[in-house]
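Module 6 notes. Inverse folding takes a fixed backbone as the condition and produces residue identities as the prediction. Think of it as a translation problem where the source language is geometry and the target language is the twenty amino acids. Below is one complete input and output pair. Work through it position by position during the lab.
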């Protein structure tokens, strides 16, 4: 493949990626959300939150119901998103680490779950 053909393919890919992002931005705005609305205050970095969760799970042992419910407000970049019908997984990263987040329609409700897509 010539250099000119490679550049042409790369531009098509870049154009497609740009268009995909613009389409996603339009969908967010169509539902009335401002994609750059506000500042989000996180309660923890990802790695300390992961460590707290892992410690709670270890303390609960074989009985996951015995683990205390932990809450954290995490902020980071979503680096992967996989949807499987009524549940989805996302990888989120910040400067301290990575965590996998699980979403399901039962916990979030249909309308909120649909905004993830």
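Target side of the pair, the amino acids:
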């Amino acid at each position: 493949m010539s250099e000119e053909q490679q550049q042409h393919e790369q531009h098509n890919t870049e154009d497609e990626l740009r268009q995909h992002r613009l389409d996603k931005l339009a969908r967010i705005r169509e539902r009335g959300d401002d994609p750059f609305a506000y500042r989000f205050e996180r309660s923890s970095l990802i790695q300390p939150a992961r460590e707290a969760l892992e410690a709670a799970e270890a303390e609960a042992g074989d009985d996951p119901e015995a683990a205390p419910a932990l809450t954290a407000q995490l902020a980071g970049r979503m680096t992967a998103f996989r949807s499987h019908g009524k549940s989805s997984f996302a990888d989120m990263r910040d400067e301290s680490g990575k965590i996998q987040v699980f979403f399901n329609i039962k916990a979030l409700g249909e309308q909120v779950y649909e905004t993830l897509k």
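Reference fact for the lab report: The two ends are 36 Å apart (CA to CA).
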